[in-house]
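[SOLVED] Need 3D model of a two-part complex

Original post:
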Amino acid sequence: MASAVTGRSRRGAASRGVPYLFLAPAIVLFVLFLLLPVGYAVHLSLRKVKVSGLGLGRNSRTEIFAGLENYRTALADPELWGSAGRVLAYGLTLLPIMLGLALLFALLLDRPGVRLARFSRLAIFLPYAVPGLIASMLWGFLYLPAVSPFTDLAGRLGLPGPDPLDGGSVFFAIVNIAVWGGVGFNMIVLFTSLRAIPAEIYESARLDGCTELQLALRIKIPLLLPSLIMTTVFSLIATLQVFTEPLTVRSLTNSISSTWTPLMKIYRDAFAQNDIYSAAAGSVLIAGVTLVVSFGFLRLVQRQAFGSEDR
Amino acid sequence: MTALAPSVPVHDDADPRAPRRRAPRRAAWLPTVVLLIGAIYCLLPVAWVLAASTKGGSSLFTSFTFAPGGDLPANLGDLSAYSGGIYWKWMLNTLLYAGVGGLLSALVSGLSGYTLAKYRFAGRSVIFNVLLAGVLVPGVTLAIPQYLLLAEVGLTDTYWAVLLPNILSPYGIYLARIYAAAAVPDTVLEAARTDGASEGRIFGRVALPMMLPGLVTVFLFQFVAIWNNFLLPFVMLSDDDKFPVTVGLFTLLNQGQTVPALYSVVIVGVLISILPLIALFLTLQRYWRLDLVSGSVKG
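Solution:
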Protein backbone atom coordinates (compact mmCIF):
# COMPACT_ATOMS: atom_id res chain seq x y z
CA MET A 1 0.00 0.00 0.00
CA ALA A 2 2.85 2.36 0.79
CA SER A 3 4.09 2.22 -2.76
CA ALA A 4 0.80 3.51 -4.03
CA VAL A 5 1.43 6.89 -2.49
CA THR A 6 5.09 7.46 -3.20
CA GLY A 7 5.78 10.69 -4.98
CA ARG A 8 2.66 12.40 -3.78
CA SER A 9 2.80 16.08 -3.19
CA ARG A 10 2.53 17.68 0.22
CA ARG A 11 -1.07 18.58 -0.36
CA GLY A 12 -2.07 14.94 -0.58
CA ALA A 13 -3.59 15.39 -4.01
CA ALA A 14 -1.32 12.75 -5.52
CA SER A 15 -2.52 10.03 -3.17
CA ARG A 16 -5.29 9.85 -5.69
CA GLY A 17 -5.05 6.10 -6.13
CA VAL A 18 -5.31 5.34 -2.45
CA PRO A 19 -9.07 5.73 -2.02
CA TYR A 20 -9.70 3.35 -4.89
CA LEU A 21 -7.20 0.87 -3.49
CA PHE A 22 -8.88 1.06 -0.09
CA LEU A 23 -12.30 0.58 -1.64
CA ALA A 24 -11.15 -2.30 -3.82
CA PRO A 25 -12.06 -5.13 -1.40
CA ALA A 26 -15.60 -3.84 -0.98
CA ILE A 27 -16.04 -3.23 -4.70
CA VAL A 28 -14.69 -6.66 -5.63
CA LEU A 29 -17.01 -8.36 -3.12
CA PHE A 30 -19.89 -6.22 -4.34
CA VAL A 31 -19.30 -7.27 -7.92
CA LEU A 32 -18.69 -10.95 -7.17
CA PHE A 33 -21.44 -11.62 -4.69
CA LEU A 34 -24.08 -9.05 -5.54
CA LEU A 35 -23.85 -7.82 -9.11
CA LEU A 36 -22.76 -11.09 -10.70
CA PRO A 37 -25.34 -13.30 -8.96
CA VAL A 38 -28.10 -10.85 -9.82
CA GLY A 39 -26.82 -10.61 -13.40
CA TYR A 40 -26.56 -14.37 -13.70
CA ALA A 41 -30.06 -14.79 -12.28
CA VAL A 42 -31.39 -12.30 -14.83
CA HIS A 43 -29.57 -14.23 -17.55
CA LEU A 44 -30.99 -17.58 -16.40
CA SER A 45 -34.44 -16.12 -16.03
CA LEU A 46 -34.48 -15.39 -19.74
CA ARG A 47 -33.62 -18.97 -20.69
CA LYS A 48 -35.17 -22.38 -20.57
CA VAL A 49 -34.33 -25.96 -21.35
CA LYS A 50 -35.50 -27.40 -24.62
CA VAL A 51 -35.96 -31.13 -24.58
CA SER A 52 -35.76 -32.88 -27.91
CA GLY A 53 -36.83 -36.43 -28.55
CA LEU A 54 -37.39 -38.40 -25.38
CA GLY A 55 -34.92 -36.31 -23.45
CA LEU A 56 -32.68 -39.31 -22.86
CA GLY A 57 -29.79 -38.74 -25.25
CA ARG A 58 -26.71 -36.77 -24.35
CA ASN A 59 -27.55 -33.73 -26.41
CA SER A 60 -31.29 -33.89 -26.06
CA ARG A 61 -31.42 -31.12 -23.45
CA THR A 62 -30.29 -27.75 -24.68
CA GLU A 63 -30.61 -24.37 -23.07
CA ILE A 64 -32.29 -21.82 -25.29
CA PHE A 65 -33.34 -18.21 -25.07
CA ALA A 66 -36.86 -17.95 -23.72
CA GLY A 67 -37.46 -14.23 -23.60
CA LEU A 68 -39.91 -13.25 -20.93
CA GLU A 69 -41.64 -16.61 -20.92
CA ASN A 70 -40.49 -17.51 -17.39
CA TYR A 71 -41.80 -14.22 -16.10
CA ARG A 72 -45.10 -14.67 -17.87
CA THR A 73 -45.43 -18.16 -16.39
CA ALA A 74 -44.48 -16.91 -12.93
CA LEU A 75 -46.93 -14.03 -13.05
CA ALA A 76 -49.70 -16.30 -14.28
CA ASP A 77 -49.07 -18.74 -11.45
CA PRO A 78 -51.81 -18.54 -8.81
CA GLU A 79 -49.38 -20.00 -6.27
CA LEU A 80 -47.12 -16.97 -6.62
CA TRP A 81 -50.00 -14.59 -6.14
CA GLY A 82 -51.23 -16.64 -3.22
CA SER A 83 -47.87 -16.47 -1.51
CA ALA A 84 -47.44 -12.79 -2.34
CA GLY A 85 -50.85 -12.03 -0.86
CA ARG A 86 -49.95 -14.01 2.24
CA VAL A 87 -46.71 -12.06 2.70
CA LEU A 88 -48.61 -8.81 2.22
CA ALA A 89 -51.09 -9.79 4.93
CA TYR A 90 -48.17 -11.01 7.06
CA GLY A 91 -46.38 -7.67 6.73
CA LEU A 92 -49.52 -5.65 7.40
CA THR A 93 -50.08 -7.69 10.57
CA LEU A 94 -46.48 -7.94 11.73
CA LEU A 95 -45.15 -4.42 11.18
CA PRO A 96 -47.76 -2.50 13.21
CA ILE A 97 -47.66 -5.00 16.08
CA MET A 98 -43.88 -5.31 16.21
CA LEU A 99 -43.04 -1.64 15.73
CA GLY A 100 -45.96 -0.54 17.89
CA LEU A 101 -44.77 -2.69 20.78
CA ALA A 102 -41.17 -1.60 20.21
CA LEU A 103 -42.24 2.05 20.35
CA LEU A 104 -44.40 1.46 23.42
CA PHE A 105 -41.60 -0.32 25.28
CA ALA A 106 -39.03 2.30 24.28
CA LEU A 107 -41.26 5.14 25.50
CA LEU A 108 -41.98 3.32 28.75
CA LEU A 109 -38.28 2.65 29.33
CA ASP A 110 -37.59 6.33 28.83
CA ARG A 111 -40.22 7.31 31.39
CA PRO A 112 -38.95 8.46 34.76
CA GLY A 113 -39.86 6.29 37.72
CA VAL A 114 -39.96 2.93 35.96
CA ARG A 115 -38.65 0.13 38.15
CA LEU A 116 -36.60 -2.88 37.01
CA ALA A 117 -36.11 -1.09 33.69
CA ARG A 118 -32.66 -2.55 33.12
CA PHE A 119 -33.94 -6.08 33.60
CA SER A 120 -36.90 -5.54 31.27
CA ARG A 121 -34.71 -3.90 28.64
CA LEU A 122 -32.27 -6.81 28.59
CA ALA A 123 -35.02 -9.45 28.67
CA ILE A 124 -36.91 -7.89 25.77
CA PHE A 125 -33.69 -7.49 23.80
CA LEU A 126 -32.59 -11.08 24.43
CA PRO A 127 -34.45 -12.66 21.46
CA TYR A 128 -32.24 -10.63 19.11
CA ALA A 129 -29.45 -13.05 20.04
CA VAL A 130 -31.62 -15.99 18.96
CA PRO A 131 -31.54 -16.66 15.20
CA GLY A 132 -34.84 -16.98 13.36
CA LEU A 133 -34.46 -20.70 12.89
CA ILE A 134 -33.85 -21.37 16.59
CA ALA A 135 -36.68 -18.98 17.53
CA SER A 136 -39.01 -20.89 15.23
CA MET A 137 -37.97 -24.17 16.83
CA LEU A 138 -38.51 -22.79 20.34
CA TRP A 139 -41.97 -21.52 19.52
CA GLY A 140 -42.66 -24.54 17.37
CA PHE A 141 -42.25 -26.77 20.40
CA LEU A 142 -44.36 -24.41 22.48
CA TYR A 143 -47.07 -24.72 19.82
CA LEU A 144 -46.79 -28.49 19.44
CA PRO A 145 -49.73 -29.97 21.38
CA ALA A 146 -47.70 -32.99 22.57
CA VAL A 147 -45.20 -30.87 24.51
CA SER A 148 -46.87 -27.46 24.73
CA PRO A 149 -47.28 -25.93 28.19
CA PHE A 150 -50.39 -24.17 26.90
CA THR A 151 -52.06 -27.47 26.03
CA ASP A 152 -50.89 -28.81 29.35
CA LEU A 153 -52.29 -25.82 31.23
CA ALA A 154 -55.57 -25.91 29.35
CA GLY A 155 -55.87 -29.62 30.12
CA ARG A 156 -55.42 -28.95 33.82
CA LEU A 157 -58.13 -26.33 33.71
CA GLY A 158 -60.41 -28.71 31.86
CA LEU A 159 -60.39 -26.59 28.71
CA PRO A 160 -59.83 -27.79 25.18
CA GLY A 161 -56.17 -27.36 24.27
CA PRO A 162 -55.39 -24.63 21.75
CA ASP A 163 -53.69 -25.73 18.58
CA PRO A 164 -51.76 -22.78 17.16
CA LEU A 165 -50.51 -24.96 14.34
CA ASP A 166 -54.02 -25.44 13.06
CA GLY A 167 -54.67 -24.18 9.54
CA GLY A 168 -56.61 -21.13 10.68
CA SER A 169 -54.20 -19.88 13.30
CA VAL A 170 -50.82 -20.93 11.93
CA PHE A 171 -50.56 -17.51 10.24
CA PHE A 172 -50.65 -15.81 13.62
CA ALA A 173 -48.31 -18.41 15.06
CA ILE A 174 -45.73 -17.32 12.47
CA VAL A 175 -46.41 -13.63 13.07
CA ASN A 176 -45.84 -14.21 16.78
CA ILE A 177 -42.41 -15.74 16.15
CA ALA A 178 -41.39 -12.70 14.11
CA VAL A 179 -42.77 -10.27 16.72
CA TRP A 180 -40.87 -12.09 19.43
CA GLY A 181 -37.64 -11.98 17.44
CA GLY A 182 -37.93 -8.38 16.26
CA VAL A 183 -39.47 -6.29 18.98
CA GLY A 184 -36.36 -6.06 21.18
CA PHE A 185 -33.97 -4.83 18.53
CA ASN A 186 -36.34 -2.16 17.31
CA MET A 187 -37.07 -1.15 20.88
CA ILE A 188 -33.35 -0.68 21.57
CA VAL A 189 -32.86 1.38 18.43
CA LEU A 190 -35.77 3.66 19.33
CA PHE A 191 -34.74 3.82 22.97
CA THR A 192 -31.19 4.79 22.02
CA SER A 193 -32.43 7.67 19.92
CA LEU A 194 -34.76 8.76 22.71
CA ARG A 195 -31.77 8.97 25.03
CA ALA A 196 -30.03 11.22 22.55
CA ILE A 197 -32.73 13.87 22.79
CA PRO A 198 -31.56 16.71 25.05
CA ALA A 199 -33.33 16.54 28.41
CA GLU A 200 -33.90 20.30 28.49
CA ILE A 201 -36.66 19.90 25.94
CA TYR A 202 -38.64 17.85 28.44
CA GLU A 203 -37.87 20.12 31.37
CA SER A 204 -39.59 23.11 29.86
CA ALA A 205 -42.53 21.00 28.70
CA ARG A 206 -42.93 19.59 32.20
CA LEU A 207 -42.79 23.08 33.66
CA ASP A 208 -45.61 24.01 31.33
CA GLY A 209 -47.66 21.25 32.94
CA CYS A 210 -47.24 18.64 30.21
CA THR A 211 -48.06 15.11 31.42
CA GLU A 212 -45.81 12.16 30.58
CA LEU A 213 -48.37 10.92 28.07
CA GLN A 214 -48.57 14.28 26.32
CA LEU A 215 -44.80 14.46 26.40
CA ALA A 216 -44.60 11.10 24.64
CA LEU A 217 -47.24 11.89 22.03
CA ARG A 218 -46.41 15.52 21.28
CA ILE A 219 -42.64 15.63 21.66
CA LYS A 220 -40.98 12.24 21.77
CA ILE A 221 -42.79 10.51 18.91
CA PRO A 222 -42.27 13.40 16.43
CA LEU A 223 -38.58 13.53 17.36
CA LEU A 224 -38.34 9.76 16.89
CA LEU A 225 -39.68 9.93 13.37
CA PRO A 226 -36.35 9.44 11.54
CA SER A 227 -35.57 6.38 13.67
CA LEU A 228 -39.06 5.03 13.16
CA ILE A 229 -38.61 5.37 9.41
CA MET A 230 -35.29 3.51 9.52
CA THR A 231 -36.69 0.67 11.60
CA THR A 232 -39.69 0.46 9.28
CA VAL A 233 -37.49 0.16 6.19
CA PHE A 234 -35.38 -2.58 7.71
CA SER A 235 -38.41 -4.46 9.00
CA LEU A 236 -40.06 -4.12 5.59
CA ILE A 237 -37.05 -5.67 3.87
CA ALA A 238 -36.99 -8.51 6.39
CA THR A 239 -40.71 -9.10 5.94
CA LEU A 240 -40.59 -9.49 2.17
CA GLN A 241 -38.06 -12.28 2.44
CA VAL A 242 -39.71 -14.32 5.17
CA PHE A 243 -38.61 -17.90 4.76
CA THR A 244 -37.00 -19.51 7.79
CA GLU A 245 -39.94 -19.29 10.18
CA PRO A 246 -42.59 -20.91 7.98
CA LEU A 247 -40.08 -23.49 6.72
CA THR A 248 -39.25 -24.54 10.28
CA VAL A 249 -42.83 -24.61 11.47
CA ARG A 250 -43.62 -26.67 8.39
CA SER A 251 -41.54 -29.44 9.95
CA LEU A 252 -44.13 -29.66 12.72
CA THR A 253 -47.41 -29.26 10.91
CA ASN A 254 -49.14 -29.88 7.62
CA SER A 255 -50.90 -26.50 7.67
CA ILE A 256 -48.11 -24.78 5.74
CA SER A 257 -47.72 -25.45 2.06
CA SER A 258 -44.37 -25.63 0.31
CA THR A 259 -45.17 -22.35 -1.41
CA TRP A 260 -46.37 -20.48 1.65
CA THR A 261 -44.15 -17.46 0.90
CA PRO A 262 -42.61 -16.35 -2.42
CA LEU A 263 -39.12 -17.29 -1.27
CA MET A 264 -40.33 -20.76 -0.31
CA LYS A 265 -41.79 -21.15 -3.79
CA ILE A 266 -38.49 -20.10 -5.36
CA TYR A 267 -36.67 -22.55 -3.14
CA ARG A 268 -39.02 -25.33 -4.18
CA ASP A 269 -38.65 -24.45 -7.86
CA ALA A 270 -34.86 -24.52 -7.61
CA PHE A 271 -34.31 -27.56 -5.44
CA ALA A 272 -37.38 -29.76 -5.38
CA GLN A 273 -38.28 -29.29 -9.03
CA ASN A 274 -34.81 -28.53 -10.37
CA ASP A 275 -36.22 -25.71 -12.42
CA ILE A 276 -33.51 -23.10 -11.96
CA TYR A 277 -34.95 -20.95 -14.74
CA SER A 278 -38.24 -20.36 -12.95
CA ALA A 279 -36.38 -19.97 -9.67
CA ALA A 280 -34.14 -17.34 -11.26
CA ALA A 281 -37.16 -15.47 -12.61
CA GLY A 282 -38.79 -15.63 -9.19
CA SER A 283 -35.62 -14.37 -7.50
CA VAL A 284 -35.38 -11.45 -9.88
CA LEU A 285 -39.04 -10.60 -9.28
CA ILE A 286 -38.72 -10.71 -5.51
CA ALA A 287 -35.47 -8.71 -5.52
CA GLY A 288 -37.10 -6.17 -7.81
CA VAL A 289 -40.16 -5.81 -5.63
CA THR A 290 -38.00 -5.48 -2.52
CA LEU A 291 -35.92 -2.83 -4.23
CA VAL A 292 -38.90 -0.86 -5.45
CA VAL A 293 -40.76 -0.99 -2.14
CA SER A 294 -37.85 -0.12 0.11
CA PHE A 295 -36.29 2.36 -2.28
CA GLY A 296 -39.62 4.09 -2.70
CA PHE A 297 -39.96 4.28 1.04
CA LEU A 298 -36.41 5.57 1.43
CA ARG A 299 -36.83 8.19 -1.26
CA LEU A 300 -39.59 9.65 0.82
CA VAL A 301 -37.22 10.16 3.69
CA GLN A 302 -33.77 10.30 2.13
CA ARG A 303 -32.97 13.71 3.44
CA GLN A 304 -33.31 12.62 7.05
CA ALA A 305 -31.67 9.25 6.70
CA PHE A 306 -28.72 9.66 4.37
CA GLY A 307 -28.76 13.17 3.03
CA SER A 308 -26.78 15.22 5.48
CA GLU A 309 -23.35 13.90 4.59
CA ASP A 310 -23.65 13.93 0.88
CA ARG A 311 -24.44 17.47 0.06
CA MET B 1 -16.02 18.58 5.14
CA THR B 2 -19.41 17.45 6.26
CA ALA B 3 -22.31 18.71 8.24
CA LEU B 4 -20.83 16.95 11.25
CA ALA B 5 -19.24 19.14 13.84
CA PRO B 6 -15.90 17.71 14.91
CA SER B 7 -17.05 17.89 18.48
CA VAL B 8 -20.03 15.58 17.99
CA PRO B 9 -20.14 13.76 21.28
CA VAL B 10 -19.44 10.09 20.94
CA HIS B 11 -21.07 9.43 24.24
CA ASP B 12 -20.92 6.23 26.15
CA ASP B 13 -24.27 4.81 27.02
CA ALA B 14 -22.86 1.99 29.11
CA ASP B 15 -25.41 2.74 31.75
CA PRO B 16 -28.49 4.14 30.06
CA ARG B 17 -30.27 4.48 33.38
CA ALA B 18 -27.70 6.95 34.59
CA PRO B 19 -29.62 9.87 36.06
CA ARG B 20 -29.18 12.28 33.22
CA ARG B 21 -32.49 13.90 33.87
CA ARG B 22 -34.17 14.72 37.14
CA ALA B 23 -36.66 11.95 37.72
CA PRO B 24 -39.63 12.25 40.01
CA ARG B 25 -39.27 9.93 42.97
CA ARG B 26 -42.67 8.33 42.56
CA ALA B 27 -42.54 4.92 40.95
CA ALA B 28 -44.48 4.54 37.71
CA TRP B 29 -46.16 1.21 38.33
CA LEU B 30 -48.24 0.80 35.20
CA PRO B 31 -45.25 1.23 32.85
CA THR B 32 -43.22 -1.08 35.07
CA VAL B 33 -45.86 -3.79 34.86
CA VAL B 34 -46.28 -3.43 31.09
CA LEU B 35 -42.53 -3.76 30.62
CA LEU B 36 -42.39 -6.78 32.90
CA ILE B 37 -45.13 -8.47 30.87
CA GLY B 38 -43.02 -7.84 27.79
CA ALA B 39 -39.99 -9.27 29.57
CA ILE B 40 -41.87 -12.42 30.56
CA TYR B 41 -43.13 -12.87 27.00
CA CYS B 42 -39.56 -12.67 25.71
CA LEU B 43 -38.14 -14.99 28.36
CA LEU B 44 -40.91 -17.58 28.13
CA PRO B 45 -39.52 -19.73 25.30
CA VAL B 46 -36.02 -19.58 26.77
CA ALA B 47 -37.35 -20.65 30.18
CA TRP B 48 -39.24 -23.46 28.53
CA VAL B 49 -36.20 -24.77 26.65
CA LEU B 50 -34.20 -24.63 29.89
CA ALA B 51 -36.80 -26.78 31.63
CA ALA B 52 -37.36 -29.08 28.67
CA SER B 53 -33.66 -29.77 28.21
CA THR B 54 -33.58 -31.38 31.65
CA LYS B 55 -36.17 -33.96 30.66
CA GLY B 56 -35.72 -37.31 29.02
CA GLY B 57 -37.49 -38.51 25.91
CA SER B 58 -40.62 -39.86 27.59
CA SER B 59 -41.09 -37.29 30.36
CA LEU B 60 -40.78 -34.56 27.73
CA PHE B 61 -44.19 -35.56 26.48
CA THR B 62 -45.79 -36.34 29.84
CA SER B 63 -44.63 -34.12 32.68
CA PHE B 64 -45.64 -30.55 33.41
CA THR B 65 -43.71 -28.55 30.92
CA PHE B 66 -42.05 -25.95 33.14
CA ALA B 67 -41.06 -28.37 35.92
CA PRO B 68 -37.40 -29.34 35.57
CA GLY B 69 -36.34 -32.97 35.38
CA GLY B 70 -32.99 -34.56 36.07
CA ASP B 71 -31.98 -35.74 32.63
CA LEU B 72 -29.81 -32.83 31.48
CA PRO B 73 -26.54 -34.82 31.70
CA ALA B 74 -28.12 -37.72 29.84
CA ASN B 75 -29.48 -35.40 27.15
CA LEU B 76 -26.11 -33.72 26.80
CA GLY B 77 -24.54 -37.15 26.47
CA ASP B 78 -27.04 -38.07 23.75
CA LEU B 79 -26.32 -34.81 21.96
CA SER B 80 -22.55 -35.34 22.07
CA ALA B 81 -22.92 -38.94 21.00
CA TYR B 82 -25.20 -38.15 18.09
CA SER B 83 -23.47 -39.06 14.85
CA GLY B 84 -20.02 -39.04 16.46
CA GLY B 85 -20.28 -35.64 18.14
CA ILE B 86 -21.16 -33.79 14.98
CA TYR B 87 -23.09 -31.21 16.99
CA TRP B 88 -19.85 -29.72 18.34
CA LYS B 89 -18.49 -29.60 14.81
CA TRP B 90 -21.56 -27.59 13.85
CA MET B 91 -20.91 -25.18 16.70
CA LEU B 92 -17.31 -24.74 15.57
CA ASN B 93 -18.45 -24.19 12.00
CA THR B 94 -20.89 -21.53 13.20
CA LEU B 95 -18.10 -19.82 15.07
CA LEU B 96 -16.00 -19.90 11.92
CA TYR B 97 -18.72 -18.58 9.61
CA ALA B 98 -20.05 -15.91 11.95
CA GLY B 99 -16.83 -15.07 13.83
CA VAL B 100 -14.37 -14.95 10.94
CA GLY B 101 -17.03 -13.60 8.58
CA GLY B 102 -17.92 -10.88 11.08
CA LEU B 103 -14.29 -9.92 11.62
CA LEU B 104 -13.54 -9.70 7.91
CA SER B 105 -16.73 -7.77 7.39
CA ALA B 106 -15.85 -5.27 10.12
CA LEU B 107 -12.41 -4.80 8.57
CA VAL B 108 -13.70 -4.29 5.03
CA SER B 109 -16.48 -2.01 6.28
CA GLY B 110 -14.04 -0.04 8.41
CA LEU B 111 -11.62 0.51 5.55
CA SER B 112 -14.39 1.44 3.11
CA GLY B 113 -16.24 3.65 5.56
CA TYR B 114 -13.04 5.45 6.52
CA THR B 115 -12.14 6.01 2.88
CA LEU B 116 -15.58 7.33 2.00
CA ALA B 117 -15.61 9.64 4.99
CA LYS B 118 -12.06 10.95 4.88
CA TYR B 119 -10.97 11.13 1.24
CA ARG B 120 -12.20 13.34 -1.53
CA PHE B 121 -12.03 11.66 -4.90
CA ALA B 122 -13.88 11.41 -8.14
CA GLY B 123 -16.85 9.08 -7.94
CA ARG B 124 -17.03 9.13 -4.16
CA SER B 125 -20.75 9.64 -3.85
CA VAL B 126 -21.50 7.35 -6.79
CA ILE B 127 -19.53 4.51 -5.17
CA PHE B 128 -21.16 5.17 -1.83
CA ASN B 129 -24.66 5.21 -3.25
CA VAL B 130 -24.12 2.09 -5.32
CA LEU B 131 -22.70 0.20 -2.34
CA LEU B 132 -25.50 1.47 -0.16
CA ALA B 133 -28.13 0.31 -2.62
CA GLY B 134 -26.94 -3.17 -1.65
CA VAL B 135 -28.77 -2.68 1.66
CA LEU B 136 -31.98 -2.89 -0.30
CA VAL B 137 -31.08 -6.23 -1.87
CA PRO B 138 -31.12 -8.42 1.20
CA GLY B 139 -28.82 -11.40 1.59
CA VAL B 140 -31.60 -13.92 1.68
CA THR B 141 -32.97 -12.89 -1.70
CA LEU B 142 -29.47 -13.26 -3.06
CA ALA B 143 -28.83 -16.71 -1.64
CA ILE B 144 -30.35 -18.65 -4.53
CA PRO B 145 -28.71 -16.56 -7.29
CA GLN B 146 -25.42 -16.87 -5.38
CA TYR B 147 -25.92 -20.60 -5.25
CA LEU B 148 -26.60 -20.79 -8.99
CA LEU B 149 -23.45 -18.79 -9.70
CA LEU B 150 -21.18 -20.68 -7.31
CA ALA B 151 -22.53 -23.97 -8.62
CA GLU B 152 -21.35 -22.82 -12.04
CA VAL B 153 -17.76 -22.47 -10.76
CA GLY B 154 -17.93 -25.55 -8.55
CA LEU B 155 -17.58 -23.72 -5.25
CA THR B 156 -20.76 -25.00 -3.59
CA ASP B 157 -20.47 -27.28 -0.59
CA THR B 158 -17.26 -25.61 0.57
CA TYR B 159 -16.58 -23.34 3.53
CA TRP B 160 -15.92 -20.53 1.07
CA ALA B 161 -19.46 -20.76 -0.25
CA VAL B 162 -20.84 -19.61 3.09
CA LEU B 163 -17.97 -17.39 4.20
CA LEU B 164 -17.34 -15.23 1.13
CA PRO B 165 -20.86 -14.00 0.29
CA ASN B 166 -21.26 -12.87 3.90
CA ILE B 167 -18.29 -10.50 4.09
CA LEU B 168 -19.71 -7.53 2.24
CA SER B 169 -22.07 -5.55 4.43
CA PRO B 170 -23.42 -2.39 2.78
CA TYR B 171 -25.01 -1.47 6.05
CA GLY B 172 -21.70 -1.97 7.86
CA ILE B 173 -20.00 0.37 5.38
CA TYR B 174 -22.71 2.95 5.98
CA LEU B 175 -22.27 2.69 9.76
CA ALA B 176 -18.48 2.80 9.50
CA ARG B 177 -18.66 5.90 7.33
CA ILE B 178 -20.80 7.74 9.84
CA TYR B 179 -18.57 6.62 12.65
CA ALA B 180 -15.33 7.54 10.92
CA ALA B 181 -16.68 10.98 10.10
CA ALA B 182 -17.56 11.59 13.74
CA ALA B 183 -14.68 9.88 15.53
CA VAL B 184 -11.59 10.46 13.38
CA PRO B 185 -10.60 14.16 13.32
CA ASP B 186 -9.04 15.44 10.08
CA THR B 187 -6.36 17.26 12.07
CA VAL B 188 -5.00 13.97 13.44
CA LEU B 189 -4.76 12.54 9.92
CA GLU B 190 -3.04 15.69 8.68
CA ALA B 191 -0.56 15.50 11.55
CA ALA B 192 0.24 11.88 10.70
CA ARG B 193 0.75 12.84 7.04
CA THR B 194 3.07 15.67 8.04
CA ASP B 195 5.10 13.11 9.99
CA GLY B 196 5.46 11.17 6.76
CA ALA B 197 3.28 8.16 7.59
CA SER B 198 1.96 6.23 4.61
CA GLU B 199 -1.78 6.17 3.97
CA GLY B 200 -1.98 2.48 4.86
CA ARG B 201 -0.19 3.10 8.11
CA ILE B 202 -2.42 6.04 8.94
CA PHE B 203 -5.45 3.83 8.57
CA GLY B 204 -4.01 0.90 10.51
CA ARG B 205 -2.32 2.78 13.33
CA VAL B 206 -4.33 5.97 13.67
CA ALA B 207 -7.84 5.65 12.26
CA LEU B 208 -8.57 2.00 13.03
CA PRO B 209 -8.04 2.30 16.81
CA MET B 210 -10.23 5.40 16.87
CA MET B 211 -12.97 3.57 15.00
CA LEU B 212 -12.86 0.49 17.19
CA PRO B 213 -16.13 1.03 19.10
CA GLY B 214 -17.97 1.57 15.83
CA LEU B 215 -16.35 -1.51 14.33
CA VAL B 216 -17.37 -3.64 17.32
CA THR B 217 -20.93 -2.64 16.46
CA VAL B 218 -20.43 -3.58 12.81
CA PHE B 219 -18.91 -6.89 13.89
CA LEU B 220 -21.84 -7.73 16.16
CA PHE B 221 -24.36 -6.80 13.50
CA GLN B 222 -22.68 -8.94 10.91
CA PHE B 223 -22.11 -11.78 13.37
CA VAL B 224 -25.85 -11.86 14.04
CA ALA B 225 -26.69 -11.43 10.36
CA ILE B 226 -24.55 -14.41 9.36
CA TRP B 227 -25.81 -16.52 12.25
CA ASN B 228 -29.33 -15.57 11.19
CA ASN B 229 -28.86 -16.26 7.50
CA PHE B 230 -30.20 -19.76 7.33
CA LEU B 231 -30.99 -19.98 3.64
CA LEU B 232 -27.44 -19.45 2.37
CA PRO B 233 -25.77 -22.41 4.15
CA PHE B 234 -28.98 -24.38 3.69
CA VAL B 235 -28.73 -24.19 -0.10
CA MET B 236 -24.93 -24.12 -0.37
CA LEU B 237 -24.00 -27.10 1.75
CA SER B 238 -24.90 -30.75 1.44
CA ASP B 239 -22.07 -32.27 3.49
CA ASP B 240 -23.30 -32.22 7.10
CA ASP B 241 -19.71 -31.90 8.31
CA LYS B 242 -19.73 -28.28 7.11
CA PHE B 243 -23.15 -27.29 8.46
CA PRO B 244 -23.56 -24.39 10.84
CA VAL B 245 -25.57 -25.30 13.90
CA THR B 246 -28.81 -23.82 12.52
CA VAL B 247 -28.83 -26.07 9.45
CA GLY B 248 -27.73 -29.02 11.55
CA LEU B 249 -30.54 -28.60 14.04
CA PHE B 250 -33.03 -28.16 11.21
CA THR B 251 -32.08 -31.52 9.72
CA LEU B 252 -32.34 -33.08 13.19
CA LEU B 253 -35.80 -31.56 13.66
CA ASN B 254 -36.94 -33.05 10.40
CA GLN B 255 -35.77 -36.49 11.44
CA GLY B 256 -37.58 -35.94 14.76
CA GLN B 257 -40.86 -36.15 12.85
CA THR B 258 -40.29 -39.86 12.54
CA VAL B 259 -38.05 -40.41 15.57
CA PRO B 260 -39.63 -38.43 18.46
CA ALA B 261 -36.75 -39.47 20.78
CA LEU B 262 -34.60 -37.05 18.76
CA TYR B 263 -36.70 -34.15 20.03
CA SER B 264 -34.93 -34.14 23.40
CA VAL B 265 -31.58 -34.05 21.57
CA VAL B 266 -32.84 -31.15 19.43
CA ILE B 267 -34.05 -29.26 22.50
CA VAL B 268 -30.77 -29.50 24.39
CA GLY B 269 -28.99 -28.61 21.14
CA VAL B 270 -31.13 -25.50 20.81
CA LEU B 271 -30.31 -24.51 24.38
CA ILE B 272 -26.55 -24.93 23.94
CA SER B 273 -26.60 -23.07 20.64
CA ILE B 274 -28.12 -19.89 22.06
CA LEU B 275 -26.05 -19.70 25.25
CA PRO B 276 -22.80 -18.40 23.67
CA LEU B 277 -24.54 -15.62 21.79
CA ILE B 278 -26.56 -14.55 24.82
CA ALA B 279 -23.31 -14.45 26.82
CA LEU B 280 -21.61 -12.49 24.04
CA PHE B 281 -24.40 -9.94 24.05
CA LEU B 282 -24.56 -9.52 27.77
CA THR B 283 -20.81 -8.85 27.88
CA LEU B 284 -20.49 -6.78 24.71
CA GLN B 285 -23.67 -4.76 24.96
CA ARG B 286 -21.89 -1.84 26.59
CA TYR B 287 -19.73 -1.51 23.47
CA TRP B 288 -22.73 -1.41 21.23
CA ARG B 289 -23.09 1.89 19.47
CA LEU B 290 -26.73 1.62 18.58
CA ASP B 291 -26.97 5.37 18.33
CA LEU B 292 -25.30 4.72 14.98
CA VAL B 293 -28.37 2.87 13.78
CA SER B 294 -30.78 5.56 14.75
CA GLY B 295 -28.49 8.21 13.32
CA SER B 296 -28.08 10.00 16.64
CA VAL B 297 -24.32 10.28 16.21
CA LYS B 298 -25.07 12.94 13.67
CA GLY B 299 -26.44 15.03 16.50
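Edit: The radius of gyration of chain B is 23 Å.
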